[in-house]
Amino acid sequence: MKTSIDCFSCFIRQGLRAARLAGASEKQQDLVVRAIMGHLLGGNPDESPVELARSVQQIVSEITGQSDPYGDLKSLSNAQAAAWVENLKNTPSTPQTDPLDHAVRLAVAGNVIDYGPQTPFNLESTLERCLREPFAIDHLPLLRERLQSARTLAYLADNAGEIIFDRVLLGELLARFGLEKILFVVREEAFLNDALAEDAETAGILELDQVELVRMGPGIPAPGTPGRAVWEQVRRCDVRLAKGQANAECFDTEPDFFLLFMVKCEMVMRALEEKGLGTTRLGDIVLTHSGY
């Protein structure tokens, strides 16, 4: 997806929030906002949303000296999500429940744990809503069909906290399909509240024998960069599933990606409609395939 001028105010708010989480002084906050505005006005007009978000976080890090301002929030998100998953284990399911559909819904409900957008969230009400409301775009039948014959799956994670719910979906995928390997991709370094290797360890992802943990930056790594080899591994997998709206923005033009996310942005709503995928609302849950 392309960056719109409507995105600029969001990037400024995102940078200011990160600066405050980093403990920035009023003067530092002012410097962060001015530096972001300067970058937006003088930068590359073709810079993608994820590239701009990376630039914003670099500005915050350089001015505040804090490389991971979301660190404490990520730990809190993991703990809260783990408590909710434990509660759900004790909730009896109905005979009509489709285990795969249920696990996918849990995974996308966890996508609400996101401190990049400015919309506040409530995990409890989101879980309840996602478990009963239909998908706004539902390509689960296609995903199910593709997984029937797949041996390898690339699963690109999104946020800390959310990754706890990903563990539930990974377990269901391994139990239901004959997957020999799941390539589980986390960020190689701190970026917003995106999941890192330590979050995957906290979530119990590494306890799954068929899961290989790898690290890659946001978006598609450029040739010659450390993450490029991981990207090539991703491309070789039989099925590729990316979590979260930011990943959807990065991979929506790739020829064969499943994108599982919650709609949090009017620009994304517009992009989905322009692709002929229908009308969505903020908060809708989506499982789409980039080839549509």
From TrEMBL:
Gene3D superfamilies: Uncharacterised protein PF01937, DUF89, domain 2 (1.10.285.20), Uncharacterised protein PF01937, DUF89, domain 3 (3.40.50.10880). InterPro entries: ARMT-1-like_metal-bd_sf, ARMT1-like_metal-bd, PH1575-like. It comes from the Bacteria. Residues 5-275 form the Damage-control phosphatase ARMT1-like metal-binding domain. It comes from Ruficoccus amylovorans. This is DUF89 family protein.
